[in-house]
């Protein structure tokens, strides 16, 4: 196998990862529909198990791609390609053996799933801001549909778990990448926010907010 073939396989795996992420979003949407019906539905637990399994697969692909890239970067002679598969298998097995299923619960889309279900179950009742933590109450009162970076309505909103601010996913990831290329930290673009180090791992997809944005769009199209 040539290095170009290896790189082609990795590209296919990354494309597969994107499909896994889309599937996780769809499962979350269906679970939210069940939760909003205010019914105790065993299907929600089954969907949570499905989300966790997808998170496991996503994590394994990340590790596999990382191992392959590391091993191929060390290839200096053509004959080294013959032992490439064995080295990848050895290192991948070694890394994944140290993983814990408990870590899956911190996967961004697993966190988003749980937050979305919790919010959906609470949809039926009025939220008393006075009874909430002060920071959460401020966040709930300030969240809107406009991205602080693009100044237009968000398409795929994500929430920063450190400061609770929302951004459009593409915009904030682009800013993080730009700052990284400049060897700088990414500051939260919300005016007055003290979070000076926004990282991709801090971002959680906000399915509930995305559904509200989509609902508003549908209502506007009817008028």
UniProtKB/TrEMBL annotation:
Q: Name one GO cellular component term.
A: Smc5-Smc6 complex
Cross-referenced CDD domains: SPL-RING_NSE2 (cd16651)
Q: Which InterPro entries match?
A: Nse2(Mms21), Znf_MIZ, Znf_RING/FYVE/PHD
Q: Where does the SP-RING-type domain lie?
A: 132-218
Q: Determine the domain of life of the protein's source.
A: Eukaryota
Q: Name one GO biological process term.
A: protein sumoylation
Localization, per the record, is: Nucleus
Keyword flag Cell inner membrane: no
Which terms in the Gene Ontology molecular function aspect does this entry carry? SUMO ligase activity; zinc ion binding
Pathway the protein acts in: Protein modification; protein sumoylation
Keywords in alphabetical order, please: Metal-binding, Nucleus, Transferase, Ubl conjugation pathway, Zinc, Zinc-finger
Family statement: Belongs to the NSE2 family.
- What's the name of the protein? E3 SUMO-protein ligase NSE2
The species this protein was found in = Seriola lalandi dorsalis
């Amino acid at each position: 196998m040539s290095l170009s073939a290896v790189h082609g396989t990795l590209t296919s795996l990354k494309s597969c990862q994107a499909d896994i992420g889309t599937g996780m979003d769809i499962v979350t949407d269906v679970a939210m529909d069940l939760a909003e019906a205010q019914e105790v539905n065993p299907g929600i637990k089954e969907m949570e198990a499905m989300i966790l399994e997808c998170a496991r697969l996503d994590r394994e692909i990340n590790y596999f791609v990382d191992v392959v890239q590391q091993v191929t970067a060390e290839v200096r002679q053509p004959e080294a390609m013959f032992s490439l598969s064995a080295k990848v298998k050895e290192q991948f097995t070694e890394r994944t053996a140290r993983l814990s299923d408990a870590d899956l619960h911190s996967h961004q889309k697993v966190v988003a799933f749980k937050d979305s279900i919790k919010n959906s179950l609470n949809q039926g009742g009025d939220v008393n801001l006075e009874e909430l933590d002060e920071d959460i109450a401020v966040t709930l009162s300030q969240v809107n549909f406009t991205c602080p970076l693009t100044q237009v309505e968000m398409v795929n909103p994500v929430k920063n778990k450190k400061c609770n601010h929302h951004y459009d996913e593409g915009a904030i990831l682009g800013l993080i990448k730009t700052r990284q290329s400049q060897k700088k930290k990414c500051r939260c673009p919300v005016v007055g926010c003290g979070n000076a180090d926004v990282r991709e791992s801090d971002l959680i997809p906000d399915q509930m907010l995305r559904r509200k944005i989509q609902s508003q769009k549908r209502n506007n199209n009817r008028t």
